[in-house]
Amino acid sequence: MRSSFLILSIINLLTIVHCVNYEPNWKSLDARPLPEWYDRAKIGIFLHFGLFSEPSYVSEWFWDFWRDSSTPYVWQHTQLLRYMRDNFKPNFTYAEFGSNFRTEFFNATQWAEIIKKSGARYTVLTTKHHEGFTLWPSSYSFQWNSMALGPKRDIVGEFSAAIRKIGNIHLGLYYSLFEWFHPLYLKDMEHNYTTHEYVRLKARPELEELINTYRPELLWSDGDAVYNDTYWNSTDILAWLYNDSPVKDVIVTNDRWGTNCHNKHGGFFDGPDRNNPDSLPKHKWESAISIDQVAWGYRREASLDQLLTINELIHQLLKTISFGGNFLVNVGPNKDGRIMPIFEERLSQLGEWLEINGEAIYESQIYEKCQMSKNNQTFYTKKNDGIYGITLDWPNEGIMEFECIDYDDVNQVTMLGSDESIKFGPGSNGTLVKFPKWIPNTFKYAYTFKFHV
Ligand SMILES: *[C@@H]1O[C@H](CO)[C@@H](O)[C@H](O)[C@H]1NC(C)=O
Ligand SMILES: *[C@@H]1O[C@H](CO)[C@@H](O)[C@H](O)[C@H]1NC(C)=O
Ligand SMILES: *[C@@H]1O[C@H](CO)[C@@H](O)[C@H](O)[C@H]1NC(C)=O
Ligand SMILES: *[C@@H]1O[C@H](CO)[C@@H](O)[C@H](O)[C@H]1NC(C)=O
Ligand SMILES: *[C@@H]1O[C@H](CO)[C@@H](O)[C@H](O)[C@H]1NC(C)=O
Ligand SMILES: *[C@@H]1O[C@H](CO)[C@@H](O)[C@H](O)[C@H]1NC(C)=O
Ligand SMILES: *[C@@H]1O[C@H](CO)[C@@H](O)[C@H](O)[C@H]1NC(C)=O
């Protein structure tokens, strides 16, 4: 009796395990539940680092803008032609930046410490951008990687180890599918993407090497938008990732798997850069934004007014989280391998705010009734028996109405960072709250009330 029960249980268990076998089609792949850690983490730090960090001028698209006059980026193209003419010897090639790219101050522990201090729960590093230069000794990127050229270091390896060591931050790796000037890619392009040599011999095996070696929990795919998923063999890659890869149970990915996939297929939806939907999305999404509003990689010429202030950053964070998104904040380390103090400061300000207000952010859920006030100054999230109203205003009169909170539902109001008991009462169509005494160094940027319901 007992042993047959045991055998049945084992058979059940095997069935459950066996059942989770994804087929290389979107119907099957899209049915995979997103691993839970991702929605709970909410805040991530994106790092754009690569050979483009060496010239660190105009954009991480430097090489393409400089070489390709057919892009719509005429201003960038003209600017870079002039810059190269005035500052480099004739016939200087992009590859020659490689020997100057020494990253002599790169210290992965320091990056991990800055990320930790920001309050982020995940991070994403560009391991290969569209230039094709890999930040690890890729077996598929001969002489075009950070071990053979430039730093002579495994940047991805050092970064992954430092992130794991510091703890409580999920490791994400960005990988660009396409490469502007890869000969095999150019050939496939000439054949109108009816051949797949680049995918078969470069992108696919290289991506597998990256995943097998560093075992990230997030794969941030990009550079897909030149053709549809048929060319990239995306469903086959994802079936491998979800069924057979060493990270099959934890890996989270995005929707950049071909022109027909954005906001439709994959894991969470990134949509366009600086995603900012105006109505509540039905699917888990992410807003990737850069503190430098002009570019993702470091730009030496960036001016202060081009960088998001901490208030702007918090405002965008609130709009994103209240609408159910994750917030991925980008900084570009410089050519020396340093996250410059202005970016470090911005990230640490974010961390200070999350230290007090994180309860309303991490692991929070969408408050279905209402996500933001009519004047866009107050945002709402919920968790267990609390609804959080987070406002950018500190009213002069010290009284504000939270229009989305029904007074009859409220048992008690508290404020994050304050011990004072908060007075509240019925408003014209919501709940009135009396702000407590101002506490310097605690109240910053946006203020969170918890409505216990
Ligand atoms: C640059 O390259 C062109 C074409 O290969 C060559 O004719 C020219 O002499 C080169 N210029 C210099 C300064 O090396
Ligand atoms: C890297 O930074 C950490 C933390 O600041 C420091 O303890 C360590 O000595 C640095 N390593 C090197 C090689 O400079
Ligand atoms: C690719 O498409 C273009 C435009 O439709 C066509 O002119 C060309 O012949 C095609 N090339 C190949 C190799 O099929
Ligand atoms: C992708 O492109 C191929 C080749 O042009 C075409 O046969 C296929 O229908 C396209 N797939 C989608 C989903 O549009
Ligand atoms: C997609 O990948 C699978 C498995 O590696 C392979 O058998 C198939 O030929 C690939 N398809 C294309 C179009 O490259
Ligand atoms: C609030 O945000 C919405 C959507 O982003 C926008 O359409 C509207 O103009 C904003 N209202 C105010 C008062 O800023
Ligand atoms: C009252 O608030 C709700 C949202 O909580 C809103 O839908 C409704 O339009 C508001 N009514 C008035 C009169 O402002």
TrEMBL record:
GO cellular component: lysosome
Alphabetical UniProt keywords: Glycoprotein, Glycosidase, Hydrolase, Signal
Every Glycoside hydrolase family 29 N-terminal domain range: 21-359
Chain ranges of the Alpha-L-fucosidase C-terminal domain: 376-451
EC number(s) on file: 3.2.1.51
Span of the signal peptide: 1-19
GO molecular function annotations of the record: alpha-L-fucosidase activity
Cited function: Alpha-L-fucosidase is responsible for hydrolyzing the alpha-1,6-linked fucose joined to the reducing-end N-acetylglucosamine of the carbohydrate moieties of glycoproteins.
Entry's family note: Belongs to the glycosyl hydrolase 29 family.
The protein, known as: Putative alpha-L-fucosidase
Organism: Dermatophagoides pteronyssinus (European house dust mite)
Gene that this sequence comes from: LOC113797592
